[in-house]
Amino acid sequence: MQKISPFLWFNDQAEEAMNFYVSVFNDSKIKSVNRGPHGAVVSGTFQLEGQEFMALNGGPHFTFSPAISLFVNCETQQEVDELWEKLSAGGEKQRCGWLSDKYGVSWQIIPRTLGELLQDKDPEKSGRVMQAMLQMDKIDIAKLKQAYEG
Q1: Rounded Cα gap, residues 67 and 104, in angstroms
Q2: 139 and 85 in a common domain
Q3: Which pTM value belongs to this model?
């Protein structure tokens, strides 16, 4: 078990959410499910791309907020596109690579290229990339590179 794991509090959708997330990401699995006396899921653990998560059906007392998001480093536009569509289904697409899924969990679907271009030593190039990104919902690598080149 890793030392620090995100802990997600759901009203009563922990099992559904775990199954959904495992279906979206490669190299993912449900590790454990703890059921109460009537068979309903109380809590569980699952793994997405090597990152362990914990889920709880804790009731309606708390909800998710964009103040905490799950940041996904993507290698290709295809990966960005697939994760963007799958995770935003039933949720809400937002600006600059952010979305909230159907459970209210916030995600950032970001190509690694964005960070590389934003860290360029030429402030004009990185500034153009930033301006291009601020106009996007889903991040488009080709448009970022076009802005970089000027």
Answers
A1: 12
A2: yes
A3: 0.94
